[in-house]
Amino acid sequence: MKKKIFSGVQPTGNLHLGNYLGAIKNFVELNNDSENECVFCVVDLHAITVAQDPKQLKNNIYETVATFIASGIDPQKSIIFNQSKVSAHSEAAWILSCVARMGWLNRMTQFKEKAGKDKEKASIGLYSYPVLMAADILLYDATHVPVGDDQKQHLELCRDIAQKFNNDFKVDNFFISPEPLIQKEFSRIMSLKDGTKKMSKSELSDLSRINLTDEKDQIINKIKKAKTDPLPLPSNIDELNKRPEAKNLIGIYSSLTESTLEKTVEKFSEKNFSDFKENLSQVLVEKIVPISSEIKKLLGEKKYLDEVLADGCKKAETFSSKKIKKIHEIVGF
Ligand code: AQP
Q1: Residue 204's pLDDT band (cuts 50, 70, 90)
Q2: Is the CB of 151 under 6 A from ligand 1?
Q3: pLDDT of residue 255
Q4: Buried b / exposed e along 180-213 (16+ C-beta atoms within 10 A)
Q5: Percent of the chain beyond pLDDT 90?
Q6: Is 197 a known active-site residue?
Q7: Of 219, 142, 208, 230, which is closest to residue 181 (Cα–Cα)?
Q8: Separation of CA 332 and ligand 1 centre (Å)
Q9: Is there a catalytic annotation at residue 297?
Q10: For this structure, is 55 an active site residue?
Q11: Centroid of ligand 1 to alpha carbon of 18 (angstroms)
Q12: pTM of the model
């Protein structure tokens, strides 16, 4: 069956290996299957839920588009656009925020993590972020949404919102409940400095992540400095599961080499971390350096990136304007 794919990445800078292995790599595979219709969005409205420097945001939007293309998404096959330029997203988000329930949003763990202790000072946008995400997806009748494991709860909320809208307005199957496409293994890449924390753009230490713009020497240095434990590498999965840093590095290696955790554990069983790290650096350099070089090249071609976005916006607008028109009719506007 033809899949309609929608996913987004926030232009918040420092796109990293977690974004790549958890989401973008999957986007590329979906883009390569001619059966699929894919929409990949630079979700700049989501980015401003926390303060952004306007100049930096503009650059980050370019960098995100460049990363999509450099990773292998073909703008001729997939729609690539920025969310703020297609007004249906903001409009649908408002309408759906009148359908979503406070109780549902109160359960979202990402808000709790991002707002931290001082929830009173978090923006309302940060709180209602999952409703905007639901609008993004539902506007395109997406059947499948490739995301990292951290977005699973937001996707469940999206399904709840879709069902409630259909029930409240008695419009069976108007909104399609999308299925998450989450990699079974390696769906959450952890920090290189702490195997219990997600690799993240906002982490202060650059040594905690491999950026998709890193060069060979930076990658080798970061892997050399990556936290490990004093034991040799584990010889079985049970032992691996008790050692978060080893599990993360073995997971990264397995994902990049399209192997399983079991096979990687077997390959490096009882070896020193220094041997393993050399192998890991090598596969990382092979994968990331060509992407990094291409991103830099594309960032010198802003006119081309503008054209990709303008073309993508036009296509996204064509689809979403029809959907929002129907939403207006259903709601009674
Ligand atoms: N560490 C990760 N492992 C696997 N997948 C990940 N993703 C993010 N981090 C990891 C997935 O990447 C996609 C795009 O993410 P995003 O841009 O929406 O948000 P983010 O990377 O989580 O970054 P933030 O929120 O800007 O910054 P932080 O994390 O620093 O607070 C998503 O599909 C996500 O699942």
Answers
A1: very high
A2: yes
A3: 94
A4: bbbbeebbbbbbbbbbeebbbeebeeebbbbbbb
A5: 93
A6: no
A7: 142
A8: 37
A9: no
A10: no
A11: 7
A12: 0.95
